[in-house]
Design brief:
Shape: globular
CATH architecture: Sandwich
CATH topology: Jelly Rolls
Order of helices and strands: EHEHEEEEEEEEEEHEE
CATH superfamily: Ureidoglycolate hydrolase
Structural class: mainly beta
Number of strands: 14
Helix content: under 10%
Radius of gyration: 16 Å
Number of helices: 3
Distance between the termini: 15 Å
Largest sheet: 7 strands, mixed
Strand content: 35-45%
Mean pLDDT: 93
Number of domains: 1
């Protein structure tokens, strides 16, 4: 299995994959937008295209003995938004190589709870892993029916071709 080192979330390290915003960092949010009191509008924009309406989904994930990467996906035309609600999580992201999904192109990131992560179109990603709790919930924002109309994916069956996230 290929080891994928987990990094702390940082602007420079994550910029090529998308952007993020800690949703409980009031001072930081005040610097990004024109606040209306304690309302911080338009922190991030998500391009969902024009074909379907945005949807809010929930991912319920469980702590694993090992954070094995055996599923990769990307969306050609839309971005994806994730917010861990009740625990910090580990995610993995990367870029396809000429459209091909490869473990070798992945990086792992530690995402604090309440941090909104926007993944750009064509960014490879997959499951999330709770850090401190036995399970976690994440809000996932995508256009409706993305899994039917804009998803390229690969399920990896062979053990030696899988990856493992290392903290």
């Amino acid at each position: 299995m290929k080891e994928i080192k987990v990094r702390c979330l940082g602007d420079e390290a994550f910029r090529k994959y998308g952007v993020y915003q800690k949703l409980t960092a009031d001072a930081e949010m005040k610097n990004r937008v024109i606040p209306c009191g304690d309302f911080y509008p338009d922190l991030l924009t998500l391009d969902f295209g024009k074909t379907t309406l945005p949807t809010v989904s929930c991912c319920h994930v469980y702590k694993q003995e090992r954070m094995v990467v055996d599923f990769l996906e990307y969306h050609k035309y839309t971005c994806e938004g994730l917010v861990p609600l009740d625990d910090d999580v580990i995610i993995y992201v990367g870029v396809p190589e000429m459209g091909e999904l490869r473990i070798e192109n992945l990086e792992g990131f530690y995402i604090p709870k309440h941090t909104f992560v926007k993944l750009n179109p064509m960014i490879v990603h997959g499951g999330q892993y709770p850090v401190n709790e036995p399970e976690a919930h994440l809000i996932c924002m995508l256009p409706g029916r993305t899994f039917q109309n804009d998803m390229v994916y690969l399920r990896i069956e062979e053990e030696d071709k899988k990856g493992v996230l290392i903290m």
